[in-house]
Amino acid sequence: MSRATLKAWAIGEARIYRFVEIDSLVDPPGNLFKDASVAGVQGEDWLRPHFATVDGNLLLSFQCFLLKSCGQTILVDTCLGADKTREYDIFRNLQSNFLNDLTVIGESPESVDIVLCTHLHHDHVGWNTRRVDGQWKPTFPKARYLFGRQEWSHWQEQLELSTAHFPHMQESVLPIIEAGLVDFVEPGHRVTDEVSLEATPGHTPGHVSVCIRSGDEEAVITGDVMHHPVQCAYPDWRTHFCTDDALARETRRQFLERHTTRRTVVFGSHFPEPTAGRFERHGEAWRFIVL
User: Fold this and answer.
1) pTM (2 d.p.)
2) Of 72, 165, 166, 257, which sits most exposed with the smallest number of CB within 10 A?
3) What is the per-residue pLDDT across 193-221, written as a single tens digit (0 to 9) for each?
4) How many whole angstroms separate alpha carbon 167 and alpha carbon 171?
5) Could you tell me where the DSSP H helices lie in the chain?
6) Residues 6+ apart with CB under 8 A from 262
């Protein structure tokens, strides 16, 4: 396993492990952000070499975080999954080292206590299930899966309109609910004494970020309140995938302000290696300073 695939950090007594399912190039940046420009990316030289290319394209990762906290093993978002139906060819019938990476950390599907989904988009729920004898079965059979109550209500409404447009719900979410493994939770929910959920709506109605506080140290896993460090420089850049652009912008600015003030260690759910850093004010905007 390469350094870019597996990495670990200590936040007080808590431990955070990151393993990457796939890395991706967003070419051009407008494929991700409605307002993006190559010139805008190139003008932020601090993005290179980790987060952008000299050509003004963006580097992106699809990755999972494993937390060890208060005797609990917690997975935060389960990436894309194997053998899944997906809207984009690059993600369809994907095969990866996800489960092997879990064993490298010293865990197994049976040792996971909690699976926490920041929201229910396809690239955050994929490994919730795996195909067994032609059926989608929970990958982590002894875990409780935490879904936001408001998030699930939103997707129920979408499914009432059409199940055909959301195969990831059929493959990666509904089998978990049918197995009775889901706990529907609210923002502010305490997963352990060190881990809690922070409301960050806009990308989806019930989107949450994951806060880790242990001793005098604090960290946050963003989820998709931000997709890329370039949004530090351009917090108003909108993605093509947010349900409420205006709310997502407002939430993102509040998130940047709050975690700049707190000097929080920030783990970007789609930020490529080195992934972790801190926000720093830069004029009317911010920069992401890597650790």
Assistant:
1) 0.96
2) 165
3) 999 999 999 999 999 999 999 999 999 99
4) 6
5) 38-42, 98-105, 149-161, 167-168, 174-178, 230-233, 245-261
6) 218
